[in-house]
Amino acid sequence: MQANSNRSLWLTLITACLMCLSVLAPVQAADDVRRIEHALGVTEIQGTPQRIVTLYQGANDTAVALGVMPVGVVDSWVQKPMYHYLRDDLADVPHVGLETQPNLEEIAKLNPDLIIANKARHQEVYSQLSQIAPTVAEATVFDFKGTVKLMGEALNKQAEADQLLNDWDQRVATLQNELKASMGDNWPVSVAVTNIRNDHLRVYLEESFAGTVLHDLGFEFPNLSSQRTWGVKLNSKETIPSMNADVMFIIFQSQDGSVHENFEAWSSHPLWQNLDAAKNERIYDVDLVAWLMSGGIIGANNMMDQLYTHFDIQG
């Protein structure tokens, strides 16, 4: 009788425990749901996503930086299908179209559990993307630090994201100190980031990818706009004096003959020859991908590598 009594007691206890676990399980699952605030709203994400699709260049870059292998990526703008600096890491990842026109059907076939989008590119298709999988969006394509923060939170990799940003801040502080020591009383230096197109020029300012990096470092910019903006388009050579700066970085949009002919037409103009950067021979040709098209923290570090070279600082 005693044995049967003990057995009944244990069965009762086990049943009670199982009932408790069944009650607690939904609570634990609910606790595992994270609410991510982003540029297009609030998205609930269950657990740690394993199958992510990245829909803009900075997100492709940041996935690699965070050690995450996407199941789908968008095509690069140049060096297709993927920028050389990311090609080894993303060589076998399926492509889902252009950043400006992602293929929703192909995305759905990949069965993602998270989509990384961008308000500037995907606002009109956000609801459709959200029907495929939970979708978060960064506000702009140039804010590489914002992309790191958003993806770190969404991917449950906050520690890794924080480390990337801390490493960036330390590298910025180091180069800034070296620039100050090198330039002395001439610091801060003004810079004009000039993108050569086949029919006009663009000068990028603080609210651009290159501008964000240079602003972090303490560089100044030409006074081309009354408000913070990505930059301005220059169509007339009479506007050349407005882009005056101590240093000019030239980004050729392509190697097409028409682009280089346009540069020759502008750079041979007397007003160009009177620019401080031209008179001081401080005009540098820089990499299109690193300075304009990468959009991510790896690209930003590649850009900083070039700054060490152009300012003749040993990194």
TrEMBL record:
GO terms for biological process: iron coordination entity transport. CDD domains: FhuD. InterPro entries: ABC_transptr_periplasmic_BD (IPR002491), Bact_iron-sidero_bind (IPR051313). Gene3D superfamilies: Nitrogenase molybdenum iron protein domain. It is found in: Cell envelope. One of its GO terms (cellular component) is outer membrane-bounded periplasmic space. Residues 51-315 form the Fe/B12 periplasmic-binding domain. Keywords: Ion transport, Iron, Iron transport, Signal, Transport. Its main location: other. Residues 1-29 form the signal peptide. Belongs to the bacterial solute-binding protein 8 family. This is Iron ABC transporter substrate-binding protein.
